[in-house]
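Aim 2 progress update. The chain analyzed this quarter is reproduced below.
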Amino acid sequence: MSYVKVLWKNSLLTVLCCTVALFMLGPAKADAASDSAWDAALQSIGVLHDSYKALEEANKLKKQQIQVLRKQNDDRLKSVNAKVQGIDKAKIDKLKSEADQAQKKYQPLLNEYTDLGKKATDARKRKDQKAALQYDLKRNQIKASASAARAEIKSRKDALAAAKKEASAKAKVVKDTLAQVQTLKKQVTAENKKITAANSTRSASDKRYKAAVKLGNAITATAELTVMYKELGKISASLNQIYQWEKQIDSVIRTAETKLPKS
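Predicted C-alpha cells:
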C-alpha cells in the first residue's frame, strides 16, 4: 500500500472518529475534534497534492512518448503497405502490356475467323452450299494463323496470371504478419475507452474538489482529490499498457519488413 493511500485511510479514520465525537462530547469538545479532523485533512491533502501533480506530469510524458511511437508506427505501416502493393508491379505491368498488345494485334484476325464460321453456318441453314464452301475455304485458310494467335494470347495471359499469383503469395506472407497490428490496435482502442471513463470521473470529482476548496472544506477537498488521484492512477496504468502495445506494433512491423521481397 502506497504512502498516499495510508495517509488517506488514516484521514478517513480520523474523520470518522471526530464525527462520532461530535455526538458524544459537548459543543466545545466537538468543535475541537472537528478542528483536529480539519487539520489532519489539511496535512494529508498537501502530500496528496504533490503526488497527484507528479503523476499528472508522468502521464503527460508517457502520452508524448506514445504519440511519437504511434506516428513512427503509422508512417512505417503505411510504407510497408505501399511496398506490398508494389510487389512485382513492374513485372506484372510489363506482362499485362504484352498480353494487351497481343490481344489487340490478333483481335481482327480472330474476329474474321469467328465471323467466317458464323457465315458458313448461316449459309448451310439457307441451303447455300456454294456460299458455305467459300466461307469454309477462307476460314480454313487462316485457321493456322488464328490458332497460333490464340496460343500466343493464352501464353501471355497465363504468364500474367502466374506473375499475379506469385506476387499475391509474396504479399500474403507480409499481410499475415501485419494482421497482428489490427488486433493490437483494437486493444489500444479499448484501453483508450477506459481512459475516457476515468477522465470523466476525474473531471466530475475535480469540480467538487474546487468547490470544496472555495468553501475551505479540507475534508471534502481531500476526499475528492483522493478520487482524482485514484482515477489518474488508472489512466497511468492504461497509458503504460498502450505504450507496451505500441512497442509490440513496432516489433510486428519490423518483422513484416523483413518478409518483403528483396529488390
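The CA atoms of residues 10 and 40 lie 9 Å apart. The radius of gyration is 39 Å. These observations will guide the mutagenesis experiments scheduled for the next reporting period.
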